[in-house]
Write the structure tokens for this entry.
Amino acid sequence: DVKVTQSSRYLVKRTGEKVFLECVQDMDHENMFWYRQDPGLGLRLIYFSYDVKMKEKGDIPEGYSVSREKKERFSLILESASTNQTSMYLCASSLLQAPSNEQFFGPGTRLTVL
Amino acid sequence: SQKIEQNSEALNIQEGKTATLTCNYTNYSPAYLQWYRQDPGRGPVFLLLIRENEKEKRKERLKVTFDTTLKQSLFHITASQPADSATYLCALDNTGGGNKLTFGTGTQLKVEL
């Protein structure tokens, strides 16, 4: 059974803390994505990666960075967490070339920044 | 800029009826469109993909249409069941490429007994 896992389901951090969100996929997918989901705004792409050590900015990269040192792992980093980064964070992966290009999502991490 | 609109109001229907959800887009010529289901507290799950040269796609009780002239996709669930209650998201391939998707905000469907 294909799987995308995220390190935490719930996380509470304080303003100014450095936060790491980890995502691991076991499907040997080239593409990996980080989204945040907020009520009324839907899923918004933060960063994505199509290969190890490669990354590209999505629609809302400000305040975030990413790391992809291994194919199966994609990390999202909040250098200095702020309250407006309280959100649901979703990781996804997909094949580089696929008939459907469907994305497989993890269960999400609900991050609260106090 | 690209814009995708889904009805933000929840859709309540009776069990056994057909549910129809709408996805409209502007400033966009997508090569394909996808539909996902999302349950509360979970990540979206892929349901169907339809390409620009396809008018209709079916999978069991699901049917998707794609009208590139109207810039609209309709998502139908026939013989709906309470277990179909969820939020349904449409997504279009992003003009930036790289297998990126742009998602709509989703429509919540509630199927009542």
